[in-house]
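re: ur question from yesterday

yeah so i grabbed the chain u mentioned. its 172 aa long if i counted rite. heres the sequnce exactly as i have it in my notes:
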Amino acid sequence: MKAYMTLGTRDFLEKLVDKHPDLGLYLMGQGTGTLAYYENQRKNVFASGKEYEVISQNGEIQDEGYVVMNNIPVLEDSRDSFEQRFKQRQHGVDSMPGFQAFRFLRPLKDKTYVVMTQWRSKEDFENWKNSEQFKNAHKNQDSKPPAYFADRPFITSYHMKKEDDEEGNDDQ
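ran it thru and got these structure tokens back, copy pasting raw so excuse formatting
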């Protein structure tokens, strides 16, 4: 399965949702920006954006929730070892209260993988970060990035946007 995402204004992306009601587009807000995301095997309908292969998943993405994306740039010749190492890790995330969905996304045109989790709320995500399961899943990480990182990983977070959400009301 493939996943597609793009950034844009909420008005523009809502028009895409209306134009493609069969795609199951999800809108997510971050401050004043909006991200559109969908999954399927069809062609990308975005004029610009990113395309991924879903290489691991758990749970179903919900219309409501808090989404965290770990963006991890990986060197081309290190992709296989990165994927194998990631797949071998014990996650424990899916047993946490408030967990909704997980996606491990391989980039098709650039170097940045995305590890996406969706939570019922930001508080549920914070509880995961402070849990023993999180500590166990991340205990073997060194203080310096592994050699296969092409650049420093970064995190983005979003609140799912519902039709009745007002612009800028992302920190509910």
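noticed a couple things. Helices lie at 10-19, 79-88, 122-129, 132-137. also The chain has one domain: 2-160.
anyway ttyl
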